[in-house]
């Protein structure tokens, strides 16, 4: 196994796309991904990733799941192909929906790390803007949401409809727009394409960021709620709590 890991590291550095290699500080995730792919292909193991799906060459593109170093719940889901991030045109088509489904399916890794103290349905998903991210390989963050965000969705979720509109209150001092996705539409949904439908956002997704989480259990319309905003360094990741204090809140609530 040690020999495989050495070979994986050498292969990873040689496989960095030229556009990414121009800024090595932003290619760490890509390098780790190449190690996962080589381990999967050579030995049938996903390490250092939690899981690797090589895809089927068709409707299901390859994806990998990786735990953020030193963070027991913070997990990311990424394509095995080179996809820069939220602004990538390929995400406007079927691949965007496929990566979304892969992220939904991976929420259990956060719940498992908490030994079931938080339901997978309460795990949030998030993608940062170009200026708000540190890596240039698409990665969908999975983790707990802040208590304040959970409380805001409980109090104001009924104001969120199936068309983009301002969320009634700022979240972490930032004004967001919000969209409800009906429960039966969630599996086929493409959040990247939905962002392009926010008035004035088409062609400007490089500075957009969004988070998504299932509606409060008491919300009669259910489904998922997307929260998004645009700024040069937009990062809806601030709506997440990587220490997962809300796991205790959810259990008691």
From TrEMBL:
SUPFAM superfamilies: HIT-like (SSF54197). Pfam families: CDH. It is a single-pass membrane protein. InterPro entries: CDP-diacylglyc_Pase, HIT-like_sf. Its main location: membrane. Pathway: Lipid metabolism; Phospholipid metabolism; CDP-diacylglycerol degradation; phosphatidate from CDP-diacylglycerol: step 1/1. It is an enzyme of class 3 (hydrolase). Keywords: Cell membrane, Hydrolase, Lipid biosynthesis, Lipid metabolism, Membrane, Phospholipid biosynthesis, Phospholipid metabolism, Signal, Transmembrane, Transmembrane helix. It is found in: Cell membrane. Its EC number is 3.6.1.26. It catalyses: a CDP-1,2-diacyl-sn-glycerol + H2O = a 1,2-diacyl-sn-glycero-3-phosphate + CMP + 2 H(+). It comes from the Bacteria. The keyword tRNA processing does not apply. Residues 1-21 form the signal peptide. Belongs to the Cdh family. This is CDP-diacylglycerol pyrophosphatase. It comes from Methylobacterium oryzae.
């Amino acid at each position: 196994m040690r020999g495989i890991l050495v070979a994986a590291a050498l292969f990873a550095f040689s496989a960095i796309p030229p556009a990414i290699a121009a800024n090595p500080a932003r290619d760490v995730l890509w390098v780790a991904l190449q190690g996962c792919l080589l381990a999967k292909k050579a030995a049938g193991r996903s390490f250092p990733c939690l899981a690797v799906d090589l895809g089927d060459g068709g409707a299901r593109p390859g994806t990998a799941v990786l735990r953020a170093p030193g963070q027991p719940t913070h997990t990311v889901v990424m394509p095995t192909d080179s996809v820069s991030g939220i602004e990538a045109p390929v995400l406007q088509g079927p691949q965007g929906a496929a990566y979304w489904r892969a992220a939904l399916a991976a929420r259990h890794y956060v719940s498992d790390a908490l030994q079931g103290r938080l339901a997978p349905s309460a795990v949030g998903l998030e993608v940062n803007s170009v200026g708000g991210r540190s890596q240039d390989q698409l990665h969908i963050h999975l983790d707990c949401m802040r208590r304040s965000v959970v409380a805001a969705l409980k109090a104001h979720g009924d104001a969120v409809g199936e068309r983009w509109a301002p969320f009634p209150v700022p979240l972490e001092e930032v004004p967001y727009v919000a969209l409800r996705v009906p429960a039966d539409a969630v599996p086929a949904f493409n959040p990247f394409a939905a962002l392009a439908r926010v008035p004035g956002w088409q062609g400007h997704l490089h500075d957009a960021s969004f988070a998504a989480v299932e509606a409060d259990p008491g919300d009669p319309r259910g489904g998922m709620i997307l929260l998004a905003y645009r700024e040069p360094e937009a990062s809806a990741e601030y709506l997440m709590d990587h220490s997962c204090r809300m796991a205790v809140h959810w259990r008691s609530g």
